[in-house]
Amino acid sequence: MIDKQILKEVIDCATGSGGDFADIFVEEKRSVGISCEAGKIERVLSGVDAGAGIRVLSGESTAYAYTNDLSREGLLEAAKIVSHAAVGGKKGVNLDFVKVMPQVDFKFKERPEEVSTERKAAVVESADKAARAVDKEQIKQVIVGYGDVVQKVTIANSDGNYVEDERVRTRFIVQAVAAQGQVIQTGYEAVGSLCGFELFKSFSPEEVAGAAAKRALEMLKAKPAPAGRMPVVMASEAGGTMVHEACGHGLEADLVQKNISVYAGKKGQAVASEVVSVYDDATIDSRYGSYRFDDEGVPARKVNLIENGVLVDFMYDRLTSVKDGRQSNGHGRRESYQHKPIPRMANTCIAPGKTDPEKIIRETKNGLLVKKMGGGQVNTTTGDFVFDVAEGYLIKDGEIGPMVRGATLTGNGPEVLRIVEMVGSDLGFTIGTCGKDGQGVPVSDAQPTMAIKELIIGGTGSGEPNGKIRRI
After folding, report:
1. Could you tell me which of 65, 284, 287, 418 has the fewest CB atoms within 10 Å of its CB?
2. Could you give the C-alpha distances from 447 to 242, 277, 327, 458, in angstroms and in order?
């Protein structure tokens, strides 16, 4: 996108007054969004955003400027601004720009820009009709959203590294609202991948819509969840929302270094049950949070965070890795050229175990089975969390019992990891946009079926699955 000679001039200018390191992140992003409400296409949005962010690191300080003027003059003006924040004499700068090669590659089979808007809209309309057809009387509202992004980036830095990359992501969501009398319930389903329009060869839009609508209808018949302390089985279908929120953020190096992570100072210590291992892997093929390079030009790699219960590593970007006297492990991410990179998750997973998932349910005499997670909140300093259960069932005598609604899970992330008793051999993924410091980035998270000894269940029901639930 930008001539290499201009990039060299920009880096040279940015380091003109000193500084330890400088880089430039150039981005061109093309996006399409289509939404359907009330049975008709409401919005078709498309756009192009392009610009560059220039950064200088000087000790523990960061100077950052961005511009959408990609001319030589515009870039040099931004470089001059950040150069004023650097201190000390000018250090050696490598402007040879050796192209960095990725450790993994991804293929995009059906590029979004080669698919007509009519085809994309047809997928949205098909999902809307499929959701409404599940029950024409009780399905009152359906919202369908399609989005794709083609992002091209160029990254160059004062170490002489040069990176070119392209990320293509497609996502699809369906929300259905069902009503019966005064009872209103919602079903939600989302799929997405690091891929093009071939997403719909893996996920039928009609099946995604049907799943959302059926969940909304089933929730109408569900009984209010009982409240108390009880064993919980997290099904793999629930995805890794809990590990992402209650554990993952606390393993990002900036929070650890600021001492606002519950995992600060615990490297090498047991922080989870021996059956629990956690990793973050941006190299998994087709996952929504995957990438070849992070947004600092560091090749993506798998990073083991917790091994058999022991904390072994954190997720680093360049700035935090320098503070700890090590190399970045490829987790410097940003929302766009308008944002500086910070440590972020990509695809965060609890590793599968060896136990048959069905055996986990059979050996749970009574408790709650969570098949779908909803929204929630977490305090990364303490690890305390509250999550909604979008789809849950009581377990009675080792068998799946009636569906319940209105359940919440309350606990502490590190404590929950310590009381995981069994880990299944399966693995289920969910997708999302992770927010931090005003930035959003695409992520996936995953977990196997897990048996948790006990969690606090919030609910409004008066019934008890076994008569032994301890009231709060």
Report:
1. 418
2. 9, 10, 28, 23
Question: Cα separation of 307 and 248, whole Å?
Answer: 14
Segment holding 342, helix H or strand E: strand 342-343
Alpha-carbon span 21 to 354, nearest angstrom: 46
Question: Beta strand pairing status for 399-405 and 223-224?
Answer: parallel
Q: 3-state SS string over 10-66?
A: HHHHHCCCCCCEEEEEEEEEEEEEEEEECCEEEEEEEEEEEEEEEEEEECCEEEEEE
- Position 445, amino acid: D
pLDDT by residue (tens digit) across 51-103?
A: 999 999 988 889 999 999 999 999 999 999 999 887 776 677 888 999 999 99
User: Coil, strand or helix: which one is 365?
Assistant: coil
How far apart CA 149 and CA 326 sit, in angstroms, is 33
Residues 178 and 216 sit within 8 Å (Cβ to Cβ): yes
Residue 333 to residues 90, 112, 270, 300, 420, Cα–Cα distance (Å)? 27, 23, 28, 11, 31
Largest separation between any pair of C-alpha atoms in the chain: 74
Q: Which residues contact 133 (CB under 8 A, 6 or more apart)?
A: none
Q: CB of 406 within 8 A of CB of 387? A: no
Q: Give 89's DSSP letter.
A: S
Single-letter code of the amino acid located at 363: E
Q: Which two tokens stand for residue 381?
A: 């300093």
